[in-house]
Amino acid sequence: MSRFFTAGLLAALTLALTLMQAHAGERKQCNAQLASYLIGEHLTRELKERVRVEARATRVVVNPIPQEFEPNRLRIITDESLRITGMSCG
Q1: More confident residue, 71 or 16
Q2: Residue ranges of the domains in the chain?
Q3: Which CATH number applies to 31-90?
Q4: Do strands 73-78 and 59-62 pair parallel, antiparallel, or not at all (unpaired)?
Q5: pTM
Q6: What is the spatial distance between Cα 67 and Cα 64, in angstroms, rounded to a whole number?
Q7: Do residues 57 and 74 make contact, with C-beta atoms less than 8 angstroms apart?
Q8: How many CA atoms lie within 13 A of 2 on its CB side?
Q9: DSSP 3-state of 75
Protein backbone atom coordinates (compact mmCIF):
# COMPACT_ATOMS: atom_id res chain seq x y z
CA MET A 1 0.00 0.00 0.00
CA SER A 2 2.80 2.41 0.89
CA ARG A 3 4.46 1.78 -2.48
CA PHE A 4 1.24 2.69 -4.34
CA PHE A 5 0.78 5.82 -2.24
CA THR A 6 4.36 6.94 -2.95
CA ALA A 7 3.96 6.31 -6.69
CA GLY A 8 0.66 8.20 -6.77
CA LEU A 9 2.12 11.12 -4.85
CA LEU A 10 5.11 11.27 -7.19
CA ALA A 11 2.82 11.23 -10.23
CA ALA A 12 0.66 14.01 -8.78
CA LEU A 13 3.68 16.18 -8.01
CA THR A 14 5.08 15.64 -11.50
CA LEU A 15 1.75 16.67 -13.04
CA ALA A 16 1.52 19.75 -10.80
CA LEU A 17 5.05 20.85 -11.73
CA THR A 18 4.31 20.40 -15.43
CA LEU A 19 1.13 22.49 -15.17
CA MET A 20 2.91 25.22 -13.20
CA GLN A 21 5.62 25.48 -15.87
CA ALA A 22 3.00 25.67 -18.62
CA HIS A 23 1.14 28.48 -16.87
CA ALA A 24 4.37 30.35 -16.13
CA GLY A 25 5.14 30.38 -19.85
CA GLU A 26 1.71 31.85 -20.62
CA ARG A 27 2.23 34.76 -18.25
CA LYS A 28 5.51 35.74 -19.89
CA GLN A 29 4.17 35.86 -23.46
CA CYS A 30 3.97 39.31 -25.03
CA ASN A 31 0.49 40.81 -24.93
CA ALA A 32 0.25 44.29 -26.51
CA GLN A 33 -3.34 44.74 -25.29
CA LEU A 34 -2.07 45.06 -21.72
CA ALA A 35 -0.34 48.34 -22.64
CA SER A 36 -2.71 49.57 -25.36
CA TYR A 37 -4.10 52.26 -23.06
CA LEU A 38 -0.80 54.12 -23.69
CA ILE A 39 -1.62 54.65 -27.38
CA GLY A 40 -1.61 58.39 -27.97
CA GLU A 41 1.17 59.07 -25.45
CA HIS A 42 4.50 60.65 -26.45
CA LEU A 43 7.17 57.93 -26.59
CA THR A 44 10.17 58.48 -24.30
CA ARG A 45 12.83 56.04 -23.11
CA GLU A 46 11.01 55.68 -19.81
CA LEU A 47 7.66 55.07 -21.48
CA LYS A 48 9.23 52.56 -23.89
CA GLU A 49 10.47 50.53 -20.92
CA ARG A 50 7.13 50.85 -19.12
CA VAL A 51 5.27 49.61 -22.21
CA ARG A 52 7.72 46.69 -22.55
CA VAL A 53 7.19 45.62 -18.94
CA GLU A 54 3.40 46.01 -19.03
CA ALA A 55 3.14 44.08 -22.31
CA ARG A 56 5.41 41.35 -20.89
CA ALA A 57 7.80 41.64 -23.83
CA THR A 58 11.49 40.79 -23.76
CA ARG A 59 12.37 43.19 -26.61
CA VAL A 60 10.94 46.36 -28.13
CA VAL A 61 11.36 47.80 -31.62
CA VAL A 62 9.98 51.17 -32.68
CA ASN A 63 8.64 51.66 -36.21
CA PRO A 64 10.02 48.30 -37.30
CA ILE A 65 10.67 47.14 -40.80
CA PRO A 66 9.31 43.62 -41.40
CA GLN A 67 11.40 41.04 -39.58
CA GLU A 68 11.08 37.42 -38.52
CA PHE A 69 8.28 36.73 -36.08
CA GLU A 70 9.39 36.79 -32.43
CA PRO A 71 6.46 36.13 -30.06
CA ASN A 72 8.02 38.07 -27.17
CA ARG A 73 8.99 41.18 -29.16
CA LEU A 74 6.78 44.26 -28.90
CA ARG A 75 6.50 46.47 -31.98
CA ILE A 76 5.59 50.10 -31.24
CA ILE A 77 4.39 52.27 -34.11
CA THR A 78 4.67 56.06 -33.79
CA ASP A 79 3.93 59.08 -35.93
CA GLU A 80 6.50 61.74 -36.85
CA SER A 81 6.16 63.44 -33.46
CA LEU A 82 6.73 60.12 -31.61
CA ARG A 83 3.11 59.73 -30.47
CA ILE A 84 2.29 56.04 -30.13
CA THR A 85 -0.26 55.12 -32.80
CA GLY A 86 -0.24 51.36 -32.38
CA MET A 87 1.54 48.32 -31.00
CA SER A 88 1.62 44.59 -31.56
CA CYS A 89 3.64 41.56 -30.59
CA GLY A 90 5.74 39.64 -33.04
Answers
A1: 71
A2: 1-28, 31-90
A3: 3.30.10.10
A4: parallel
A5: 0.68
A6: 8
A7: yes
A8: 0
A9: strand
